[in-house]
Amino acid sequence: MSDRYSNRLIRSIWDRLLGKSHDGKRDRYEVFGWQKALRSENFVGLYHRNGVASRIIRAFPQATWASHPVICDDSDDDASGFTQAFDDLNRRLRIMHYLERADRLSGIGQFGVLYLGFADNAQLRDPVEGNAPLMYLSAYGEYSIEVQQWDMDPRSPRFNMPTLYTLQTGRTALATETSASRSITVHHTRVLHLAEQLDDDEVYGIPRLLPAYNYLEDLEKVCGSSAETFWLAANRGILWSADSDAEFDEADNQRLKEQAEEYDHQLRRSITATGLSAQVLGSDTPSPEANAKTLLMLISGTYGMPQRILTGTESGELASTQDITNWNVQIDNRRQNYAGPRILRPLIERLIETGNLPKPNGQFYSEWDSLTSLSEKDQADINKVKTDTLVAYTNAIGADLLVPPREFRADFLGMSEESEYLEEDEQPLDEGDEDVQAGFGKPPAGGENDSDEDDVQAAS
Known about the structure:
The protein has helices at about 5-15, 30, 40-50, 50-65, 80-95, 95-110, 215-235, 250-265, 290-305, 305-310, 320-355, 375-395, 400, 405-410, 435-440, 450-460; strands at about 20, 25, 70-75, 110-120, 135-140, 145-150, 160-170, 180-185, 190-195, 240, 275-280, 365. The protein is of the alpha+beta class. The chain has three domains: about 40-215 and about 320-365, no CATH class; about 235-280; about 385-445, no CATH class. The strands form five sheets. Strands 5-4-9 form a three-stranded antiparallel sheet, with helices on one face. A hairpin with a 4-residue loop joins strand 1 (about 20) and strand 2 (about 25). Helix 4 packs antiparallel against helix 6 (about 95-110) and helix 7 runs antiparallel to helix 9 (about 290-305). The protein is flat, with a radius of gyration of 38 Å. The chain starts with a helix and ends with a helix. The model is unreliable at about 455-460 (pLDDT under 50).
């Protein structure tokens, strides 16, 4: 690829990112009033001031950590020492609570960190070595973090990864100048780096609000302008017209001006004047419903989130079971592909390395209950269908000739061919047993019937 072609391609990509088309002659961002350069402060502001944006940020972490996974190892005992140790540490330090917070804060910007407060004798900017009791945890978003130093050794396993972080404690979007805050510089072994939606590096992910940022801005415009228009229409202007034969001197004009200002500021509700007529100016109030619905649909589609999950309703009705199932599938996938391997496993490994957890017996695992498993109601509905099918089968004369019971159990009811609940008296009968033969009318060998037969032969 030539340098000239490569430069044109890069310029074309950036033009698309910045909303330019037709060789840069048309700037859609400028026409539509969208921001071009976005920083972490923009996402923080939207998260705190826009309800839909806040819901998008919170929905995924809250659903992911709503139920806690079971941490176990290869021990045969269900309650192994490793599992019990993690449960105790979780209760004492509320680990899952801080994982949800760190997960949420990391989604606002490009990344976040979970700070691990170890009680060791080393400086915070030095690595954690040996056993170091974990005393507390803290979560930080990108707006409170600065990467102080990078690992630039190409032969290092952490090449192009942060080595030192500077954390600004006590900084929030609503912090005042009097808020207590201080900066601490910490080594990467003292933090857990969280970044989702990674593309071309391992440090900076895509902020969760970025793909729908323009839609969220438009939603604010639609709802905000509609509210402002309603206010202006409700507080309609008045046109004061002088009659053709009316005469006013300077004192009359000053008095009318003062009364009009008092009326405008709601200090009086009437104006007294001779030779004037009032006309209330009319205006129409546009409804934001259609535009807002379209934008919510686009936002919902951007994140694959049913509108009921996003806003609480969907066209005034509860979302379908399929929508809820699709959302649960997303959360299950997020647990298996991100929360488990990218957040929980590195944390547990760090806790084992620092002696806060014992070494597991073999491997350790994090297991969540699947959200897509059937509910009690769903299972009851399935059982009812199976029961109706079984009743229809048993009442159909000759059905067992067409479909044998074993086949019906396996193919139509999804059960094993043989019941696992057979009682002892339901076991197959032994045809060689004389008592069984007698029960079916077959005389025992050498029995009474044989004597009768011999008597008949002797008489003849």
